[in-house]
Design goal:
Elements lengths: L11 E3 L5 E3 L30 H10 L2 H18 L36 H37 L1 H15 L3 H9 L8 H26 L3 H8 L4 H13 L1 H23 L11 H8 L8 H28 L5
Antiparallel strand pairs: 1-2
Helix pairs in contact: 1-11, 2-3, 2-11, 3-4, 3-6, 3-9, 3-11, 4-6, 5-6, 6-8, 6-9, 7-8, 9-10, 9-11, 10-11
Main location: membrane
Pfam family, one: BPD_transp_1
InterPro entries: BP-dependent_transpt_permease (IPR050366), MetI-like (IPR000515), MetI-like_sf (IPR035906), OppC_N (IPR025966)
Length: 329
Amino acid sequence: MSEQHYESERVVAVTGVGGTVDLGTDGTETPARAPGGPGGPGGPGPRGRPRSLWSDAWRDLRRNPVFIVSGLVICFLVLISLWPSAIASGSPLECDLAKAQEGSQAGHPFGFDGQGCDVYTRTVHGARTSVAVGVCATLGVAVLGSVLGALAGYFGGVWDAVLSRVTDVFFAIPVVLGGLVLLSVITSNTVWPVIGFIVLLGWPQIARIARGSVITVKQNDYVQAARALGASHTRLLLRHIAPNAVAPVIVVATIALGTYIALEATLSYLGVGLKPPSVSWGIDISAASPYIRNAPHALLWPSGALAITVLAFIMLGDAVRDALDPKLR
């Protein structure tokens, strides 16, 4: 029997950039790139990476003056929280009753409060407490709320129903009234009782946001494809759902950080939050309230610092929300 040699047929496909690819052999011809496409004279590079939501958001944030201003203010607050002695060398607990309620003078630009303490030094050192409470409470709320909300949104059923009813109960508790009841029986002078209280009443909001975001993302085609390929629940949550559902949580947590700082000051003002000898803007505002006519400066500076801090975090959250929301582009 004679051998017959069959020559493989070459199948050539035309690519979208004008080149050809040989589908019948192992080798391929390098597609010719269009002049203005990736790798061409006017393109971004030979291997241009696809733009993602996070890269687009960072590009928009860098061009947003609101983000730049609020970011600079927050960076300054973080720096003075870590190293308050860099701009205020005195001690916030060092007071002189002979200088009580005196105004601005050399070395003491903000004057003195009703106890003769330097208002400038106490205002600078008070930033550490406020920033620490805000950051730690936000991290605790974000982690606890995100985990519970993501699990309820992913599994649904009984877990979702239980979480919904529990969050309804926590939403019915007035925050300030709850703080007066719970913190009034705690005698600790540290920030941890206040942080724990904020986490206890703050996680339901983040849980609702995370639940809704996970429910939306898990219906996408790439999640269904990964499930069809046998991906485990852990892989689906951590690799496919969480990275695409975390944006709303980041936005809400950033805005809530400023709210938590204001809540700490409110509880300290009412006498159930931080207590002396702790240094806090809420404590200073409470102490300066009876002397508002004779020494308004003692109330103005800590109140102004609190307002600027809360406003900076709220502006940062608004900028992040605008950058991460594709509908606003």
